Amino acid sequence: MKNSLRSFILLVLGLLLPVWHAVAQSAANAPEMADTLRQDGKIYVVVAVIAVVLAGLLVYLISLDRKLTRLEKEVHNR
Amino acid sequence: MKNNWWKVLTVVLLLYTAVAGLLLPVPRLAILNETIRNLYFHVPMWFGMTIILTASVVYSIRYLRNPSERLDTLSHGFAQTGILMGIVGLATGSLWARYTWGTWWTNDPKLNGAAIAMLIYGAYLVLRSSFADEQQRARVSAIYNIFAFAAAMPLFFILPRLTDSLHPGAGGNPAFAKYDLDSNMRLVFYPAVLGWTLLGVWITQLSVRLTLLKQYIHEKQLA
What we know:
By secondary structure, chain A is mostly helical. Chain A has two helices and no strands.
């Protein structure tokens, strides 16, 4: 369990680090403000919306998976 | 958890695809513009469909060698998911064509080949639903599945390359792979293919488990 958590974190880092420079470059020389979501024609808002939609669908898929697992156990143990 | 690591991988890869796919720099090309990012969503549907339909035909062959209800259910489940991904692939491709080629559909060998292949697979579902006897249904649809696969794959991947085509990857057109798919796009494209394919496998697994559970309960009630 501990091992799988560590490999999960490593995987996330491995996928995100190559991308990070693109995000990091957006820091301007003006005083720091929470600009990120308003830049580049507000594309980040769209990205956030898509991420939320995808996350919602995946959470639903996971919950269906768990329900089915529980039902399988219930049926096979009877 | 030990057997579900690939589901975690699916979630991570798909969220990565959505975020990095929209934000990472891509080549600036005329006509395509930002729609080049469709590569992370439209193309993986076809890659995933191919892999999933291959799994389906493997289970069909295994069924014919050694018949069991489980193998038939697996083959059917994978075929259903593969067909769904193919339909989504056609729909997204049509949408993409509207804003790059200027038309929803054109008589292109790649497009028509894919459409005919999807019809062949549609007939698989019709065929399956037309049997009352379960063993007969399983046997005949397994055989049809093999023929459908053998007919569909050349329609997707061989025939369009023999003639001229608008579509990348057909008509001697080397697709994105040769010069358009730069290393930044590879960084998203390959994880995207893996992520969408795994999502297809996941959905298939749920549908197969549900069907098997139904069959189990049904048998218990009869016994």
